[in-house]
Amino acid sequence: MYPVVPRSSHSLLPRVIRGESRASLAFYIVLAIACASALIFGLGAAEPQVTPGTVIDANTGLVSISCTSPTFCAAVDRIGEVVMLQGAVWHAPVRIDTEGGFSSVSCTAVSFCVAVDRTGNAFTWNGTSWMETPHADAATGFTSVSCPSKGICDALDREGSILLLRNGAWSIRTRERIASSFGSASCPSPAFCLATTRTASLYLIQGTDVTAIHHVDAATAFTSVACSSDTACTITARNGDIIDYHSSKIAIRRTFENRLSFTSVDCTTGPACIGVTREGTAVRISSTAAVPIDSIHDPTSFTSVSCTSASVCFAVDDAGGLTRIPV
User: DSSP letters along 109-161, please?
Assistant: First the structure.
């Protein structure tokens, strides 16, 4: 096991109060309008109201979002900033990573999130501040992180390593020989994860056992995976294919035939999943159909989606925008 690396604390709230955020004037205009609307319509501490493409990060594109409820989310961007929803307020972007842009974030509670970056650093939110673990992956950069419960996470890197966070310490679970970089991971429980690679292979992670299923869909590349349980997962592909995983059985649905390119999927609210696309659309995915949601159209490309148990999803895009998607 790797030793625990000394950490440095980055407090979110003091930096917001001191105005050290790098958000532009456009962000504050949007924030002021949102606050005024809340007062006018009596929203108070209710969940925030957003329209497609509402800018919450005017500095750059957002790459990942994770929500535990309609009033708590963390979103990360390409230049090391985090944007957090707490209550009914989206805070201004705060830069906590000075070495590289983020690749993924996963939250399980208002007091626990983990964000990883492209240079191997990890950041843990404890409810009041972000704690950095420099070079948690000493070999290369992270591509994805998934946390099934507080204090427990699995993360993937570009060179085939699967890393664990347990009891505050990072270690390597295994190092796989893969033809391309790991992509996305979903861990519905500490005992099971499903990981994808850029060349459409799957890796089943069950305790200390890792099983590879190579070239599941030779026609495309996988972009995201989401598991609602240890036996049910949905994988999305760049060409619009949807791959169903049920108790080790795999079925490919050639749903959109290159008309849509999926970028992210979330199945938290089950039995339906919500997928988002490079074309700025959202798709409701059930066991029998995949139907675009007509009311959702983002002017740019969606990059990530996260759903809550309250049947609400939030999606972010590559222009720093946020869209609320009804499930």
Answer: ETTEEEEEETTS-EEEE-SSEEEEETTSSSSS-EEEEEEEETTEEEEEETTSE
Over the stretch 133-187, which tens digit does the pLDDT of each residue have? Answer: 999 998 899 999 999 999 999 999 998 899 999 989 999 888 887 767 899 999 9
pLDDT value, residue 279: 95
Q: What is the rounded distance in angstroms from the CA atom of residue 21 to the CA atom of residue 82?
A: 10
Buried b (16+ CB within 10 A) or exposed e, 167-194: eeebeebeebebeebbbbbbbbebebbb
CA distance 172 to 266: 26
Torsion angle (degrees, nearest 10) of CA 58, 157, 9, 63: 10
Predicted TM-score (pTM) of this structure: 0.85
- Residue with the two structure tokens 């109060």: 17
Distance CA(17)–CA(27), nearest Å, equals: 15
Give the CATH number of domain 8-326: 2.130.10.10
CA distance 275 to 268: 12
Q: Which residue(s) pair with 312 in the sheet? A: 326
Per-residue pLDDT, 39: 34
Average pLDDT on 305-327 reads: 91
- Report the first-to-last Cα separation within the chain, whole angstroms: 42
- Do the beta carbons of residue 30 and residue 55 sit within 8 Å? yes
Closest CA to 92 of 81, 106, 104: 81
Q: Provide the mean pLDDT of the chain.
A: 84
Bridge partners of 273?
Answer: 285
Question: How many helices (H) and strands (E) would you count in the chain?
Answer: 2, 30
Q: Which two tokens stand for residue 280?
A: 């700025």
pLDDT in tens, 265-298: 999 877 789 999 999 999 999 988 999 998 898 8
Q: Which residues pair with 44 in a beta bridge?
A: none
- The number of beta carbons lying within 10 Å of the beta carbon of residue 55 is 21
